Amino acid sequence: MTDASITAEPPLRAAPPGPAPGRGPSRYRAGALFLLPAFVLLGVWLLYPTVYTIVRSFFGPSGYLGGWVGIDNYKTLFTTSSLVTAIKNSAIWVAVVPAFVTAIGLIFAVLIERIRWSVAFKTIIFLPMAISAFATGVTWRIMYQQDPSQGAINALGRTVSDAVTAPGVLPSAVPSTGLLQSQGGGLILKTPLHPGGVALLGLTGIAPADLPTGSKQAVKPATKPGDIVGTVWRDFKPGGGKPGVVEQGELGIPGVTVELHDASGNVVQSTKTDGPGTFDFTRVPAGTYQAGIGAATFAKPFGGYSWLGPSLITPSLLIAYIWIWAGFSMVVIAAGLAAMPRDVLEAARTDGASEWQVFRRVTVPLLAPVLSVVFITMIINVLKVFDIVLALAPESAQANSSTIALAMWRTAFSGSFDFGTGSAIAVFLFLLVIPVLALNIRRFRREA
Amino acid sequence: MRTDRKLAIRVVAGVALVAALAAVVAVFAGASQAGAKTPANTRVSGSVNFWGIWSANEQTAFQKVIAGFNKKYPNVTVNYTSKGNNMPTELATAIAAGNPPDVADVAQPGLVKQLVQQHDLKPITYAKTIISKNFAPAWVKLGVVNKKLYALLYKASNKSTLWYNVHSFKQAGIKAPKTWSQLTKGAKTIKSSGTPAYSLCGASGWTLTDLFENIYLRTFGPGKYNKLSAHKIKWTDKSVTKALKEMKQVIGNSSNLYGGRNGALQTGYPQCVDFVYSTPPKAAMVIEADFVANEILQATTAKPKKDFNVVPFPAITKGADAGAIETSGDEIITFRNTPAIQAFMKYLATPGAAEIWARLGGFGTGNLHVPASVYPDSITRATEAPLTKAKAAVFDMSDEQPAAFGSTAGQGEWGLFQKFLQNPSAIKSIQQQLEAAAKAAYK
């Protein structure tokens, strides 16, 4: 309701006819007759809904009017935490988006003037404008997925992170008994070992499909004098099996790097397991040792950032929204740039101004009217932002990403049907837009 | 619509006697055997304007139900309009404009209550006899608001079900859980086998409330459940603490959820179902209602019994309460009262009207006289037949509550249970927040 009235407000004020050359009352009558259809439409679609919304905001939740509640709805607006969050978020939107969109548009517009293929470049940057905000929301939501195998942005993160530190072969494995404890990211068997001993390193939490190729039935190796032998195996068979015991049906894990630590914790030998998961530390001098598996085996792959989580959701939304509108801003500013008198720039350059000085002292001031158009348009757009939030934020983050317009719809039409509070939110939104509109109208008048 | 109403009034005024007669005939028609042929009733005429949430296949199925009605009442026209999920909004606006439909079906019992309190609905006392004949008292009660019968729960779904991947369970060597301890122990074994036990749909808040509601219902029975539902028990009550602790046994171990807690919070329904039936499976089970079957059959290649299967939600306390079922469903409500509407409402309460749709699948009913054999396959039989046998049936609690608390994305119950999933240790603080939100909504 109010949305419509917001966008159409200027024509409403601009509509009254200018002073016509008076030639008797019949002249006015004819004029009034011509204006009548427009006034009827404006009255039905703008004036009535606006007035009704304002009146409605002082009445209870349901029915055409409901009971009179005074300013209770406005109190609710500023005391309900979900509505306060929406107001805060809208403030963030207004603070961030217009400035960024204008700045990015300006940078693109100025830079694009100096390159070849500028039309192609402009087209590409402008393209997001051609996509509906809802579709953009859905697209970015997929790109923002936390699981790197689904979300493009986290997939990029994984590629980079994997290049720096490779993930281990058994990232999900956990020890099967309490004897095997984690230490520095790896696992270590707490049982002290001596030459001739056997180390059983049982792991669980490994899906059969994740076992390295060449895995065979696990065996407990026979003791060897002077050697410390052992097995690394998937200590699980259907039903669970006995933890810490190598049983029929349990598979060895080949290719795991096993380390032998001496009494002071230094790694004295390391070796790899074979198909049945067995390993052999040969010719171990007398003493007390511990066997373990290095941290590299269990290194977790990059899990992705929670772009859609409660804390990052608003920044994620802002990025997607700026991506849409940067093109609009660029095109408008580029048009302003094209219309700019070149001789002024040339004069500045001849007078010895650097390119930065020309940009800062000449281009930007001359572009100021255009920049303010973009800025003000963006403030209005951002105040009523709705669809992209609904589409992009998962339900679990909706509470954290809500905006005023979305809260209005939620309160009035989705679930609660509290038309009173909904109207109050609409009126509040209307009040926020009015100063911006007034600014806009004043500028229109000046330009006219 | 206006003229419809005038026409309807004229019908009431003009043929009141005939109408009364027709009502008697209709009662007898319902009372006689479901399959028995009754002569077509041509005396009742008029039209019924029906707003439904069913679209696509469901709409086709319901059109067949209407066709069944027209065989009995050839002179009544039922105009079905699908409003989809916009129903509450459409109704609210239509009522504000003084122009509601004759009959509508809604999925939110909370909305029915709200409409009764606003005096928008007409009681369906005329259909009480036939409804009581065909439905167990627990089901009749679901349509009662302020001691009067206003709604018929025509299409019900069983929300107390647990779906599992047969291969994952086989690989872990465990059987489908019958009790809560079997479930929690089994989940640990599944995790050791290398697959996370649960796929949670945390981004869809209602799935989390469903889980809590099932736990609460199976722990404390329908009596307490309905009290909590009506906010006669506070959310800070000890019973809620206990149920949340039990829920923590499921959601508490992040590594036993696919994607961990953060991943679960971003997974919505039905994506969570697909995870269980992908190859290789990403999780072993998903706890949601009977409609999970649709998703499995449509979105995955899994075959019933061979790849996927279903069991009732595990029993927590022993005794009669163990078999109580949580249901959600589509309730039929009326905004006017004409002979045509009366005839249609009574027809919908007959076993015949339920059987037509039940045979087509995707339909459940508490109608006692609908035999299990009408359901098209074994899975549907397994999920829907218990509806008639259930000793107690309760509504989905979040649906029954004021929408601001029970069913608005990101706030109230949905939002707070998502917070609970994020931090399952904060039971006390969640309870306090739930109570505060409930208080505000019930004011």
Account of the 3D structure:
The complex is a heterodimer of chains A (448) and B (443). Chain A contains 16 helices and 9 strands. Chain A is an alpha+beta fold. In chain A, helix 5 runs parallel beside helix 10 and helix 6 runs antiparallel to helix 10. The longest helix of chain A has 32 residues. With 443 residues, chain B is an alpha/beta fold. Chain B has 2 domains: 216 residues, D-Maltodextrin-Binding Protein, domain 2 (3-Layer(aba) Sandwich), CATH 3.40.190; 205 residues, 3-Layer(aba) Sandwich (D-Maltodextrin-Binding Protein, domain 2), CATH 3.40.190.10. Chain B is built from 21 helices and 11 strands. In chain B, strands 1, 2, 3, 6, 10 and 11 form a 6-stranded mixed β-sheet that branches. About 7% of the residues of chain B have low confidence. The chains are: A alpha+beta (448), B alpha/beta (443). At the A-B interface, helix 14 of A face helix 4, helix 8, helix 9, helix 12 and helix 20 of B.
Layout of SSEs?
The complex is a heterodimer of chains A (448) and B (443).
Chain A: H1 2-7, H2 9-14, H3 25-56, H4 72-79, H5 81-112, H6 118-126, H7 133-143, H8 152-164, E1 174-175, E2 180-183, E3 186-189, E4 198-204, E5 228-234, E6 257-261, E7 267-272, E8 278-281, E9 290-293, H9 295-298, H10 313-338, H11 342-350, H12 355-383, H13 387-392, H14 395-401, H15 404-413, H16 419-447
Parallel strand pairs in A: 4-5
Antiparallel strand pairs in A: 1-4, 2-3, 3-9, 5-8, 6-7, 6-9
Chain B: H1 2-14, H2 16-31, E1 46-52, H3 56-72, E2 76-82, H4 87-96, E3 103-106, H5 109-117, H6 128-134, H7 137-141, E4 144-145, E5 148-149, E6 151-158, E7 161-165, H8 166-172, H9 180-192, H10 205-229, H11 238-251, H12 260-266, H13 271-276, E8 285-286, H14 292-299, E9 308-312, E10 325-334, H15 339-348, H16 351-360, H17 378-389, E11 393-395, H18 397-400, H19 403-406, H20 412-422, H21 427-442
Parallel strand pairs in B: 1-2, 1-3, 10-11
Antiparallel strand pairs in B: 3-10, 4-5, 6-10, 7-8, 7-9
Helix pairs in contact in B: 2-15, 3-16, 8-9, 10-11, 10-20, 20-21
